[in-house]
Amino acid sequence: MVFALLKYGISKRYPARQEVPLTPDLKAHYDVVIIGGGGHGASLAYHLAKHHNIRNVAILEKGYLGGGNTARNTTVIRSNYTDQRSIKFYAKSLRLYESLSNELDYNMMYSRRGQLTLSHSDGVSRSLRLRADAGVFCGEANEILDRKQIKDLVPSLNLDIKGMPILSGLWHRNAAIARHDAVVWGYAIRACERGVELHQRTEVLGMEVANNKVTRIRTNRGDLSAGVVVQCVAGYSSVVAKMVGLKLPIRSYPLQAMVTHPIKPFLDPMVSSTALHCYISQSARGELVIGGGSDPYELYNTRSTLELKEGLAASAVELFPFIGELKVLRQWAGITDMTPDYSPIMGQSPLSNYWLDAGWGTWGFKATPASGFFLAKAIADNRVPEEIRPFPLDRFERFDLVNEMGATAASH
Amino acid sequence: MKIMTCPLNGPRNITEFQCHGEVHQHIDPTSASDKEWSDYLWMSNNTAGVVREWWCHTPSNFWFLAERNTVTDEILATFAVPADGPLGEVR
Ligand SMILES: Cc1cc2nc3c(=O)[nH]c(=O)nc-3n(C[C@H](O)[C@H](O)[C@H](O)COP(=O)(O)OP(=O)(O)OC[C@H]3O[C@@H](n4cnc5c(N)ncnc54)[C@H](O)[C@@H]3O)c2cc1C
Questions:
Q1: How far is residue A289 from each of residues A38, A122, A292, A349, measured CA to CA in Å?
Q2: Over chain B, what is the mean pLDDT?
Q3: Between 3.50.50.60, 3.90.1720.10, 3.40.367.20, 3.40.50.300, what CATH number should domain A24-112+175-250+340-412 receive?
């Protein structure tokens, strides 16, 4: 011990652990090229390599690993949606998350807190009842709580908000939070161990299409080709899809969030209120993580605004009046890819070798394990598995939408 | 506070305005194919760059056009709807 102190205390040559490999040279061809090194891209690469033995795979990331929305989200993981097709998909993701630390041998700091969604009106109480029953029907744990039960669960919550008293709540006991960075790092590290190449600072600038196929990918580090190309670029979905001539039903809006300075633990569950456009959880460090609704107009910019932060703070103080003295420690925004029905787009595109993983908006962190799991299977079998069949791009022209607006707003 | 200049009311806080999306070419619902109609309803250019949009100053319900850069968050110009002639619609 003393020896180590002497050896490393005075020298800068620490035995540093290189978990994420350095970016290698680009090869001319890969079996699969994944555009976007966020959680979704890394999860897809991992599942291709682990379950389908597809290892000649490159992830191309224009910035750094997990620096997009994966790094910016508030990590709510839940399955309490409205439509059975979504409930089943997100439930699978929740199950995968529950065992993810073991699966990847990497600590996700997965923490099951439960989520309490509040109602301040009869209309919302009815929609919460619908979500509770739909979830229970699919085997998920949901229940409706009355005011007394809410008070017992979160004693510090102000139930008598002026003009909008809390009437009831949807309690989703298996909802959880996890360390967002660890999710993408874990998937990327284990994927790279199996032969996947992660190329950071590698931006896709354009693509060539011939005979309904992507034949060439242009990057700032040179050109390459691929058997299959998948885009997992969240807020930039429309920009990248345009490179292959596709138009998507997606609009990019900033979503902002913030944390307060740390205080001693008082809040175990996550609490959210759609009417107040606000949700709160307390992180393992003691910070209050506060998020809410999207920005009012479309933008490819991660600036923050005073109006939105003011609104979040005002709502948070309605719920927990005693936090009025706290200071905001950090604030940020991500660019979210919003779809008309608040459901994702997963599956084949009109091009024969080009796949989409897009439209994850404000809700895609919880889906990181399942989207990679099912898309890898789809690509390996060249056949879309039943679980993600409700979410193709062409559902819009068939008017077969999967409406999750009510179950998504301000709960994420 | 971000300020937007309303052609009718002058410079106002942006929270007084609502964005109503890109200025589109309309299509004729009676002659459009199902595919054309669904594209018109759902698809979006979602341009990263300069766009021309409908905006409304909500307290006065005044509708006008604005040119905005969606990458830099700059409002480049605002103008009243021309009495005749094209609005610069995109597909
Ligand atoms: C404030 C906020 C709160 C959120 N809260 C929640 C929540 O509580 N629960 C939840 O489930 N979801 C939440 N979300 C949504 C969630 O963060 C995203 O849906 C999810 O992280 C998307 O993951 P991804 O891997 O697809 O995208 P990202 O992590 O954004 O990764 C996409 C990557 O693609 C790269 N890229 C883009 N263009 C190119 C190019 N041309 N070439 C190469 N690379 C490119 C980007 O640099 C980026 O790293 C929230 C989002 C935000 C912004």
A1: 21, 28, 10, 37
A2: 95
A3: 3.50.50.60
